[in-house]
Design brief:
Blueprint (H helix, E strand, L loop, with lengths): L2 H21 L6 H12 L5 H25 L5 H28 L4 H11 L4 H10 L5 H22 L2 H7 L5 H32 L4 H18 L4 H11 L4 E2 L2 E2 H5 L3 H15 L9 H23 L1 E2 L14 H13 L4 H21 L34 E2 L1
Antiparallel strand pairs: 1-2, 3-4
Helix pairs in contact: 1-13, 2-13, 3-10, 3-11, 3-13, 4-5, 4-7, 4-14, 5-15, 5-16, 6-7, 9-11, 10-11, 14-16, 15-16
Length: about 400
């Protein structure tokens, strides 16, 4: 296939897949569909076309992390203490098993640690629409679930920020400056964001025809500047989105205005290019079998943890909301690829996250088809409503 044919197919895919997923009541499955499409498409593409998709995917990756940051509107720290404690226990109790499963599947210890940070996370963009429709017994419990989801995603972003140095240098004291550097970046972006916010607001309020292009251009320019200064561009994109999460215009959040280009082309291109990194032959090899076994094992363990020790008080299936993690897995898999890890390692990680996310989303209650009472997700499964306005979460959780 040539480049023009691929662009045509990708545009048709972006039009068809989200609509099919919405009709099934599970809009968050769209990104998983793009990855599977990329896996199946790989054998039919030449090197030039694959390079084109991967370069477009790099831009989509930055916009994806920017929008992940936009999704997270951090609440008052007192309200998040109990959900953060729950999230920490949730990760710690699973981490040894996840590291062991990754190591058994052929990953080095450093790769297994990075993979565990991704697999024990939650991708809020995938799960938010399911959370909106989840039948929690009270507003307090519903809000508590959302705060746990937010905490799981934030701690994964922070953990994965040291993933590159860990893969490059292994376990050493040099990881400490990287962790400190993440905090410095957070502070620097926090100082810069208010000064940049007026530029975003000016674009939103005074432009029409070129609004989308100018917004995305500004995000990419800031990421490029950060990289020139030695700061990771993906990290800068995430933190920029985090500090812009309250920005609105005409009652619509910022991501609503960049969606036509980001969520309906560039971000799908990223997930398709990620699927291209998984050789189709691995789907019939032990790598896929180990990934499927790991995903099934983690789902089973999570069910036991939730029923016996880490109860949310929000129903037997509430734990499924913490399981879709494809966005965070994509971040970790990209780190693997950048550090030239064994292709089998990145393939195992991506397939495990894919099986885990799809399995959890299929077991969760679906959205009512075309219902006006629920949040209408856009083409990438993101909801247009801000997720950080939950009902006041109870300050306690049942730990049995």
């Amino acid at each position: 296939m040539n480049a023009i044919e691929i662009i045509i197919i990708l545009l048709l895919l972006v039009l068809a897949v989200p609509d099919v997923c919405r009709r099934l009541g599970r809009p968050a499955l769209a990104n998983a569909g793009y990855v599977l499409f990329g896996v199946g498409l790989g054998p039919f593409l030449g090197d030039e076309v694959q390079t084109m998709l991967q370069q477009a995917g790099k831009v989509g990756f930055l916009l994806l992390l920017f929008e992940v940051g936009l999704e997270i509107e951090l609440p008052n720290w007192k309200r998040v203490l109990a959900p953060a404690g729950f999230a920490a226990l949730w990760v710690l109790l699973q981490a040894p098993l996840a590291v062991a499963a990754a190591h058994f599947s052929g990953l080095s210890l450093a790769e297994a640690v990075v993979a565990t940070a991704a697999l024990t996370s939650c991708a809020l963009g995938m799960t938010y629409s399911a959370w909106k429709a989840f039948p929690a017994p009270s507003a307090d419990r519903h809000g508590f679930l959302l705060l746990v989801m937010i905490t799981l995603e934030v701690q994964a972003i922070v953990s994965l920020s040291v993933g590159g140095p860990l893969l490059g240098k292994g376990f050493s004291w040099s990881l400490l400056p990287t962790a400190v550097g993440t905090l410095v970046v957070l502070g620097a972006v926090g100082l810069i964001a208010p000064r940049v916010e007026w530029v975003f607001q000016k674009i939103l309020s005074t432009t029409t025809h070129w609004r989308i292009h100018l917004l995305i251009l500004l995000v990419l320019a800031i990421c490029a500047l950060a990289q020139r200064l030695g700061v990771s561009a993906p990290k800068a994109a995430f933190f920029l989105g985090l500090f812009m999460s309250r920005l609105e215009h005409d009652g619509q959040p910022l991501e609503h205005y960049v969606a036509p280009l980001s969520q309906r082309f560039l971000i799908p291109a990223f997930f398709v290019s990620l699927g291209l990194q998984v050789p189709a032959a691995m789907l019939v090899q032990t790598v896929a079998l180990k990934a499927l076994g790991t995903a099934a094992l983690l789902l089973a363990v999570r069910q036991v943890l939730h029923r016996r020790w880490l109860r949310t008080g929000a129903g037997d299936r509430a734990w499924l909301l913490f399981s879709p993690n494809l966005t965070m897995v994509a971040l970790a898999a990209t780190t693997f690829i950048e550090h030239q890890a064994d292709p089998a390692s990145s393939s195992w990680l991506l397939l495990t996250g894919l099986f885990l996310s799809v399995g959890a989303l299929l077991m969760l209650p679906g959205l009512p088809a075309r219902s006006g009472a629920t949040a209408i997700a856009d083409s990438s499964g993101h909801a247009h409503h801000k997720p950080a306005e939950p009902a006041q979460a109870d300050s306690s959780t049942t730990l049995v």
